[in-house]
Amino acid sequence: MPDRDLLIGRLPKCELHIHIEGSLEPDMMVALARRNNVTLPWDSVEAVRRAYRFGSLQDFLDVYYVGMSVLVTEQDFYDLATAYLRRAHADNVVHVEMFFDPQGHTSRGVAFDTVVNGLHRACRDARETLGLSASLIMCFLRHLDERDAERTLDAALAHRERIVGVGLDSSEQGHPPEKFRRVFARARDAGFHLFAHAGEEGPPAYVWQALDVLGVRRVDHGNRAVEDEALVARLARDRVPLTMCPLSNLRLRVIDDLVHHPLRRMTDKGVAVTVNSDDPAYFGGYVNDNFRAVAASLDLAPAEIVALARTSFEAAMMSAEERARALERFEVAVREAG
Ligand code: HPA
Ligand SMILES: [Zn+2]
């Protein structure tokens, strides 16, 4: 086996937890602010970078919502997603399921269609130019009320074939999944796959609710599930994947040191865990940086790293044939990497 970093670079993988607005790098943020005449509280790329010190999820979200205010036109959304998809391709990402936050845009007067048209076109072009498959998952902002989420779902129904799923993100504490019970039931009836952030800062009870009240098929983060043995057993038994994001957890102080990251404790109990970047422009690393950081801190063996990348294909929303083909290519790449 080659050394750990080389192996990580060579492994094909899926990225299943990326907020596209969180891939907005400071230089693009400043350039788009100029292009659209948007005033930011920061006057240079360096000043933007200095704002990236967070004590909690809410600290980050306050900066994140200001940052996304530079996204106005369909071309802005296209450029943002295209830059991310090229960067992901360089990390050997072959399949992306991309979150976006429509309410962060419609609340500023940007049309839902503008957002989806730009992102969808970037995904379609990436398939042709990079050979990478990419799909869109719309998230509801959980700090807003369910009626706002209902209106967002109504808007999404006109784009049903361009959006594969719905998720739940933003401020977790005090906004339990059950707050969105009805809108998730409607989304399921409309054929969307269901996801939710849970157990990032919120308690294990929120992960239970995501499973049993919302009926999600994958949990984003899920760190705090580790505090509840019965919950870990449930995740393992039902092979409910967790999309974990080590550098995000470190930067948002969900953990104080990567050596304490629950990833290994989860995989040891049979939970399907994947490694992802969350908001790479804000947290200091794309997906391979996340693999490298957690592999070094937890001293992961090559076989464990390979297993994490393999799990990303098992956790992805692919048809049985797509998955079989992708896994076949994955095993070839593993043999070549060795
Ligand atoms: O890490 C996150 N958690 C919750 N909401 C988010 N929105 C963007 N990133 C995040
Ligand atoms: Zn997230």
UniProtKB/TrEMBL annotation:
EC class name: hydrolase
Residues binding substrate: 279
Gene Ontology biological process terms, A to Z: adenine catabolic process; hypoxanthine salvage; nucleotide metabolic process
UniProt cofactor(s): Zn(2+)
Site feature Important for catalytic activity, where: 221
Highest taxon of the lineage: Bacteria
Enzyme Commission code(s) on record: 3.5.4.2
UniProt KW keywords: Hydrolase, Metal-binding, Nucleotide metabolism, Zinc
Residues binding Zn(2+): 17, 19, 197, 278
Database matches in Pfam families: A_deaminase
Every Adenosine deaminase domain range: 12-329
Recorded catalytic activity of this chain's protein: adenine + H2O + H(+) = hypoxanthine + NH4(+)
GO terms of molecular function: adenine deaminase activity; zinc ion binding
Active site (UniProt): 200
GO cellular component terms listed in the entry, alphabetical order: cytosol
Cofactor: binding comment: Binds 1 zinc ion per subunit.
Similarity annotation: Belongs to the metallo-dependent hydrolases superfamily. Adenosine and AMP deaminases family. Adenine deaminase type 2 subfamily.
Known function: Catalyzes the hydrolytic deamination of adenine to hypoxanthine. Plays an important role in the purine salvage pathway and in nitrogen catabolism.
Entries under HAMAP family matching the protein: Adenine_deaminase
NCBIfam families attached to this UniProt entry: aden_deam (TIGR01430), PRK09358.1-6 (NF006850)
Name by which UniProt lists this protein: Adenine deaminase
Species of provenance: Rhodoplanes serenus
